[in-house]
Design goal:
Protein-Tyrosine Phosphatase, Chain A, 51% helix, alpha/beta
């Protein structure tokens, strides 16, 4: 077996990485093969599913809105022959962290972002609104990871950046991963998705839309640091946020056990 690495290559996905190898205060580093973050695994080819199964994936936590699979095309640039999850012993848990389909929600979040001149402030404000408005749902997503059976858990949304980024930040904060490492992990997504993001930005109808899309596609590390600071001041940290959302101390311990061993 070669050296463990965080960046994973599963055919059909662009933004896959293991949460192992991150420094945690007083606990060494997080374990490899425990939790993986990704863009939508429904993009995986047969070879991609085989890679995920061989990696030990047994649970998928899908954060997307119920009808999102039908409304958005796959992210991959080159079409691949789609795989079948049913070919493997992989269980799916669906937790729509942004609730039921709501045409007004996107406009509401866009307006919050547009009210800030800097992308870091815009991203932070949108993320804080999401965490506040959907407090219980984000807690349920973390619970799904805590309750997962043996094997690796994959957490994903559409691009694996925003919703996945927030759930992963909560998981890593509970495990005591250093703030800089949480932020650095989050920041990787923009680069992984850059080819597709640039195409989407260039297709915008005018300069205002292009700038809006550029900000949406960014993943500034400072934004996650700011979000974690808001959780500190408003809830006493990620643990407090999740406890207030209905998670129990035992479930928090299971998260630490999964990520730290």
């Amino acid at each position: 077996m070669g050296p463990l690495r965080r960046e994973l290559r599963w055919d059909g996905c662009l933004n896959v990485r293991d949460l192992g190898g991150l420094p945690a205060a007083g606990a060494g580093a997080t374990r490899f093969g425990s939790v993986v973050r990704s863009d939508s695994v429904e993009q995986l080819s047969q070879a991609g599913w085989a890679s995920a199964a061989a990696y030990g994936v047994r649970t998928v936590v899908d954060l997307r809105i119920v009808d999102e699979r039908n409304r958005f095309p796959p992210l991959t640039v080159v079409p691949v022959s789609r795989g079948q999850r049913s070919d493997y012993d992989i269980h799916t848990v669906r937790v729509s962290v942004l609730g039921d389909p709501d045409p007004d929600l996107g406009r509401h979040l866009d307006a919050i972002g547009a009210s800030h001149s800097l992308e870091v402030e815009a991203t932070r404000a949108v993320y804080v609104e999401m965490l506040d408005r959907f407090h219980v749902r984000f807690t349920e997503a973390v619970r799904a990871v805590a309750d997962a059976g043996p094997g690796c858990v994959v957490v994903h949304c559409h691009a694996g950046k925003d919703r996945t980024g927030l759930v992963v930040a909560l998981l890593l904060a509970v495990a005591g991963v250093t703030r800089d490492s949480i932020a650095a992990d989050y920041a990787v997504s923009a680069g992984n998705l850059s080819v597709l993001s640039q195409q989407w930005i260039e297709e915008a109808e005018d300069a205002v839309k292009r700038e809006q899309r550029r900000r949406i596609c960014s993943s500034p590390s400072q934004a996650i640091l700011d979000v974690l600071a808001v959780l500190d001041s408003a809830h006493g940290g990620a643990d407090g946020y999740l406890l207030e959302g209905g998670l129990g101390e035992t479930e928090l311990e299971r998260i630490r056990g999964r990520l730290l061993g």
